[in-house]
Structures are given as C-alpha cells and as structure tokens.
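Reopening this one. Same input as before:
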Amino acid sequence: MEGKISQLMCRRCIGTEPPMFPSRFSPYVNTANRSCRATQPEKQGFYITESFKRFLKSTDGTLLEWEEWFEEHHPNSVQLGTDVLMNLLRKDWPPEGGVQGRSPKDVENDVALWVYDLMVTKTYEGLTIQCAVLPDIAKRLGLPFRESSTAEESRGIAGWIGKYPVSLKPDSFKEKRIVIEEFDAPIVFYHKRKCGGVAYDATAFYESLDEVDQVEYD
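Same output, byte for byte:
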C-alpha cells in the first residue's frame, strides 16, 4: 500500500540540503550518539517533538522560523550535545570514522554541525512530513488520527491511526539497516520525490490492521 503527498502539502520541508561531511563521518558520529545519547531528552532536558508542537502553535511553521524559535528557546542545546559527543570521542583519541588526521577543533566543528542538522533541520523535515503523511493515511482508511504522547514517542510510536500505533521513518533508515531504537509499531517508510512532494510505503502498517479495517485504499 503506497501513497503520495503533493509538494504543496509538504512544501515547507522540501529543498533542505544536508551538510557535507567527510566519508564515514556521519555513521561514526551517529553510533557515538547512540551510545552517549547526546541529543536525547535525558541529556537535553526536553522532548524535541513537544517543542515542535509549541512552535507550530505560535508561528507560520517555516524552517527559518523554526531555526529562530529553537535558538531562542534552546540556546545551549547544540553546544551541550556537541560537548557530550566530544567527551566520548576524546576518550579514545584519535577517533576513527573519517576524522583521522584532523585536529580536535576541526572535528568539534563538524560534530556541532552534525548535532545542529539532527536536532534542527532533520527534526523540522521529519515532523513536517509526519504531519502530512500520517493524517493522509488515516483519511484514506476512514480512521481517526491522533499524535503520540511523550511516553509513546519514546517507544518509537509517531501516532495512532484508529486503534493502531504507527511509526514513520525515511527510506534511508531501511536501506542503511540502522537500528536506533525498539519499535512498538509498524513503520511507514517515505522518500522525497525528485519531482516534488513525498512518496510513502505503508504496506507494513496496512498488513497490521484487522481485516475489517483493511478497506479499499485509493
């Protein structure tokens, strides 16, 4: 079961470009972050999705507004995440993963950019797409949609369609075989289309439905 979201519906998240890092840098830092949880609520002191919901209530929801809102409300967040990650990397210096032969300061600058990209840009893109994709699936199935609670989110649940929990991840999550957390919900995978908008694959979620809710999907 597949679907598409038009560029108009998710226009705010289209066009963001990822920063360029040395080869193997991002997987290496991502692994380190999974270990020290530098960007997670227990270190940061807040839930990023709750912040994003507050942001949407008070703005027009553009990326620039999110960047400014995040800086105003969480001014030390990126530096905190960077410090936690660098403390871990310094324990076994020089680290591997595309940072060999580089100075600690250069590595720290890239780590700060990686943390910013994860917490600000990727959060904006992922949650904006989520706000379009999951309600679209619910509408097509004729089921109500609600966002997940903070406790549910920590279990990998992005929301509920009817009585069914659902998670949402980019295709890269599947292709790279990244295992970041345990999920209590089937995953809907999405990718940005070259012609604009987003395409998603909800097969796993659809197959988890009771037969009575597996209605014709148009």
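So the earlier flakiness isn't reproducible anymore. For the record, The chain is about 50% helix and 10% strand.
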